[in-house]
């Protein structure tokens, strides 16, 4: 069964193709739930509801987390509430502050 730390390390390798920043740092992951059977439920959002890279990001999260030993099945739920709000660190990195 994967640990939360292992899953987070994998999520740090999934990069938003428009911002070139990983989805963990961006704060796109809202929750990680590891089931007793090893299954993993992830709740995440996108930088915008119409994110053109959304389907690709979902596939990459499922594939990479699913490659961890014992991490099956992997379910990813996309939510838009609360809407994504970049942290001050992200804003600084993007030159917004």
Structural category: alpha+beta
Within the CATH hierarchy, at the fold level, what is the topology? GMP Synthetase, Chain A, domain 3
The CATH architecture can be given as 2-Layer Sandwich
Give the topology string: H per helix, E per strand: HEEHEEHEH
Q: How would you summarize the topology of this molecule?
A:
Layout lengths: L3 H8 L3 E2 L4 E2 H4 L2 E6 L5 E5 L9 H13 L7 E5 L9 H6 L4
Parallel strand pairs: 4-5
Antiparallel strand pairs: 1-2, 3-4
Characterise the protein shown here.
The chain has about 100 residues and is of the alpha+beta class. The protein has one domain: GMP Synthetase, Chain A, domain 3 (2-Layer Sandwich), CATH 3.30.300.130. It has helices at about 5-10, 25, 55-65, 90-95, and strands at about 15, 20, 30-35, 40-45, 75-80. Strands 3-4-5 form a 3-stranded mixed β-sheet. A two-stranded antiparallel ribbon has the order 1-2. The termini are far apart.
Summarize the structure.
With 97 residues, this protein is α+β, with helices and mostly antiparallel strands.
Key features of this structure:
97 residues, alpha+beta, single chain, two-stranded antiparallel sheet, 32% helix, three-stranded mixed beta sheet
